[in-house]
Amino acid sequence: MAQVHGIEVVVCDVLGTMVDEPGGLRTALREAVPGADEASVDRWLTVWQEHVEHETERVNSGERPYADSAVLDREAAERVAEHAGLTDADAVARLAGAGRRLEPWDDSVSGLARLAERFPVVGLSNASRATLLRLNEHAGLRWHQALSAEDARVYKPSPEVYRLALTAAGCPPERVLMVAAHAWDLRGARAAGMRTAYVGRPVGDPPTPTDAFDWAVGGLDELASELTVD
Prior knowledge:
Belongs to the HAD-like hydrolase superfamily. S-2-haloalkanoic acid dehalogenase family. By secondary structure, the protein is an alpha/beta fold. The protein contains 9 helices and 6 strands; from the N terminus they run E-H-H-H-H-H-E-H-E-H-E-H-E-E-H. The chain has 2 domains: 9-20 and 102-226, HAD superfamily/HAD-like (Rossmann fold, 3-Layer(aba) Sandwich); 21-100, DNA polymerase, domain 1 (Orthogonal Bundle). Strands 3-2-1-4-5-6 form a 6-stranded parallel β-sheet, sandwiched between helices. The protein is globular and about 55 Å long.
């Protein structure tokens, strides 16, 4: 297996890193409530995000039994519907499936293809298996393997999720590179022994001055250029 910079396998986060999750949710909210002003859309997006974040934390702490991302998205859509006065069941159901229709960033498909020419590339996402399957198809993301946190029954940054990728990689963790637009995700990967690359996106969780990731780049194509040069 080829090695560049000591790396054998590249693992990429999906939500926020490969696809514009907040942008896709905004689009779905506007479709669900035509004519809504942007201030309302912002409020509903916050309601959605806060619910999902809170419930994933409850799952990871053991306070709530595991529920996959599709369940949490459905709950979030129902909470938004309450706030927005949305009573059309079909509209709520379509809103709940917004996570399957997120658009890729401009460099996601090309950068992924370039990385895949040199390394086995794995997607590692908190999205459920069914959501991830349909999202990959919609966004045109082509992986050698795509893994869902559903198989670990917890969410990132729980170490069990990164172990899914390490098991699939079949090599020492220091030869596996985790790529993400979220510093919290990379901290979890680093704790699991993986190497790390922060990819800047308009959304996400930027590094703090105390973070020491192996790479920090402005996009996936930039990372591909750095990694594919011996």
